[in-house]
Each structure stands twice: as structure tokens, then as C-alpha cells.
Amino acid sequence: MEHGRARGWMIGWAIAQGAALWALHGLLPKGDAAVLWPLYAVVLAVPPTLQLLAAYRARRLLWVYAAALAMVFAAAAAYAGHASLGENRGRAAMALGVLLSCSWFVLLPFAEQRLASGTWARDYARLFATAWRHAFQLLLAGLFAGLFWALLFLLAGLFKVLGVSLFMDTFTSRPFVYMATPMAFSMGLSLYAAREEALAGFWRSMLQVLGWLLPLACLIAVLFLVALPVRGLAPLWKTGHATALMLGLMAWLVFLFNVAWSDGRAESQRFGPGLQRFCAAGLLAMPVYAALCAYALGLRVAQYGWSADRVWAALAVALMAVYAVGYAVAALRRGAPWMALARRVNVAAAWLAVALALLTCTPVLDPARIAVASQLARLQAQRVDVQAFDFRYLRWDAGRAGRAALEQLAQEQSHPQAAQIREQAQAAQQDTHRYARGRGTPVWTAETLRARLQPFPAEAAPDAAWLEFLLTQLRGNRLSLTCTEAAPCPVLRIDLDGDGQAEQVLLSGYASQVFARDGAQWRTVGRLQGNLRHVQGARAGQWVEQGVQTQPPRWRDLVIGGERYSVRETD
């Protein structure tokens, strides 16, 4: 009887959610994002909250928490909608959705424990079980909704073969989609609640299996730290994504540790004393990784300033540092049960993650606002060349903060290169397409081109006629370069066809081309193929410095009927 009443409650909220989404869809073309996004945040967050907490629907406190959640999420969405513009609104909406979804999922177990016991996190075992139950319940509901739609489209497809399009027209109509999807999802949620005891054993068994990956992850962490002093930090920095790799390893350690450690009770521990000590050694390595991530990120910020991606990376490093230091302290503490302090670390990190996620939807930690302020400060301090400054980022990716910065730069007077800044800013303001080429591109001259090229060998200065040919190609938008003065493009002077005359090879990522002299004139003879990521950006010169050589093809070409055929070897 209780399950039946709860199911009716869930379906009722699903109907309300579907109707609200249908109504909001009509406002999409004309609605202001600062108004529309908060409405979507409330409609998408509140009904699932009330459905998952259906057991407490008679409690007044549930409505208080739902109202508080709605106000906080609406405020965050209102700021995000106001800060975004049409140019970057899609990515901003996606980022907001991820942030609010993760925050909602983290907060839900705390709210349920508060409703059930009057405390937020005192019963850690219950908190752990609730979080995993919600995860599995949502996964099952999503799978149920997906299969529901798969069967409907199968039915529609079969009848359409017979010339009956009624089902296809009905199932693809907007009212049906908006009403049926939340109802199918709510049915999946309610079916889990009715079979919770049987299904709980499944996800607990799944965690038991996954937990045995923790020793492997700890072995990887320890082995890499042992090898690091031997190889040095230079190979790590050359990857260009060292911080992401180390953050990924720490995230896996945190996830697998919590899967293996379970709810922290002594009877839940599956590892013996030997494996516990080994896993503790892996967890003790985490602060070293956190320090390396902070150091690598600090180098990039000192060299290039803040960008939105670096702000996100800094927040991730800060959160991982809390886990790293907390787990290391817990591993050093003696006594039973093993890693008992990790309970408090997990609770603190969860609240910190929610706080950081929501603060990014405010002026305090808005990544775009921080990035724009940093890059403007670098430009004003003349730490970046005007030609290398990314005006298009301000135009297309930085939202309202970028537009305000462009307006400021379009009126710039105090900078020594104020005229160039005004020209570039005004050109960026006039761009009508993200990838348009026009006045927003650098003003190419022989001097600016030479500053962005790095000849190899160093004494082989580029031919003046070749530079003039490049300028013609650039000004006619027939050539695209990713070169900057900070990361110049390597230019190889090398004989590729064995005719005794050197060709010019311009390495610019996927735009890398080969040029040859035809009498007194230069011409483009082809493009490079292969793993061109190695010759992109600052790493290109590092790869070239390691040595360049030519190698003839192993297989000659075939000419059949006047057509040439080349052999491309299989892997």
C-alpha cells in the first residue's frame, strides 16, 4: 500500500514536470536566459528531489529543503544566464547543468539523513548507503526510460513500414515527448523502491568487485613516484597535460578507495593487514601528486595568466588536495578501524565540492570573469604581445565579461600600442562568425611573420621570396597559422625529394605544409600527414630539436593507366 501511494506521488510530480517543461519550451526563442535558466533549474531539480524523498512527503521539513534548493539553484542559474551570451550560451548551459546536477546529487543524501535522523552526517554508514542507492536508482530509472523509448520507436517503425505513420507522428510530437519521458523515468524510480532489498544486494556486490582495483591503482601511484626521480620532471611537463593525468590518477584513487573502504566499519573491510598497509602507501603518495599538480598549474599561470580552463583545474586541484592531505593523515593514524578519519574527510570534501561548484556561478569564482581580468592585466602590463593576444576569446567564449573587456579595449588610450589594440578589439567586435577571417586576424607583415617562425637549422634564415609568398597566402586567407611569438612555428629547410634543392617545411599542426621553389617562384607542393599533434604549439620546436631526418618510402607507387597508386601500410 505504501509503495502504491509513493508511486502515485512520483507519477504526479512527473506529470507536473512534463507540463512545466512543455510550457517552458514555448518560451525558448524569446525568453531571457537570466529568467529562463532559473525556471529550468527549478523544474529539473525539484520534482526528482521530491520523488527520491517520497518516503518523507508528509514532513514539512521536506518542503523547506525543496524550497531552499530551488532558491539556491535558481540564483546560480540566473547569474550564469546573465553572464552568458548567444555566442557561448550552449557551452555555458552545459557547464551549468553539470555543476548543478553534481551538487544536487551530493546534497541529496545529506538531506535524506537529516529528514530520517535529525543529523546531517553523523551516521556515515547510512550516508554511504544512501548515496550509492540514489546513484543506482537514477541509473536504473534512466535505463528504464531509454528502453521505454526504444520500444515505442520499434512499434512506430514497424507500423510505418505498413504505411501507418500515426504512431511515429504521435511519439515524436512535443507534448508526448515532454509528458512521457518524465513519467517513464518516475516509473523506473518507483520500481526500484518496490524492489529495493533485492536490488541493493546487486550494487553492493558490484562495489565488492570494483574495490579490488584499489591495490592496482595504488601500485601505479607508487611506481610512478619511484620512477619520477630517475626520469626527472622534464618528460612530464613535455606532455602538455601533466596536470590532467595526475588529477585523473588521484580521482581514481579517491573513487576506488571509497568503493573498497565502503562505509568504514571494521566488519566491512575486505583487505587484510598487508594490503591495508600497501594501500595506505598509495594514499600517502597523493599529497605529492597534489603538490606536483599545483606546481605545474602555477608555472602555466605565471607564464600565460589565468584562463577559464586553468581556473577549473585550480578548483579541481584544491578539492583533490583536501582528499590527499586528509587521506594521508588518516593513513598515518594508528588504531581501528582502518582509515577512520576518512569519514570526516569525505564529508568535508563533499560540502567543499558543492560550495566551489555553486561559487563558480557567482562573481566570486566565475572562471570567465577571472580569465578575462587576468588576460587584460597581462596586456596592460605588456607581458603579452598585442598580435598574440586572443581577442576572439573575448568575443566568442568569455560571455558578458568578454564583451565588456572588448568595449574597454576598443577605447584603449594608455597602452604604448593602443592603436593596434583598438583596431584588433573593434575588428573582433565586428566578427559575425566564430571562424570568420577578417579584421580580427593579425595584421600580417614581414616583421610579424618572422617573429612567429623558428628556422631549423637556426642559421638557415627563411628565404625572402618564400616569406613574401607566405604573406600573400595569409592575406588571401589561403593559409592558416597557429604560430605566436611565445610558441613560434618551426620551419625546416630540408631536401625532401633528393634533387639537391632544399624545400621549406612549415610545421603548424594540422595546417603543416611543404613548399618548393619552382624557378624564381615558390609554390605549395603538399601537406604533411601523420600524428600532427606533435608539431602543434610550443611542443613543436621541442620535437624538432630532438632531430629530423628523411626516410624514403618502403613501397614504390604504382602507375596503372596513367593513374598513380600509393601503398599505405597497415598497422
TrEMBL record:
InterPro entries: DUF4153
UniProt entry keywords in alphabetical sequence: Membrane, Transmembrane, Transmembrane helix
Any one Pfam family match given in the protein's UniProt record, by short name: DUF4153
Transmembrane segments: 9-28, 34-54, 61-80, 92-111, 132-156, 176-194, 206-228, 240-257, 278-299, 311-333, 345-365
Residues in the signal sequence: none
Domain of life: Bacteria
Protein name per the record: DUF4153 domain-containing protein
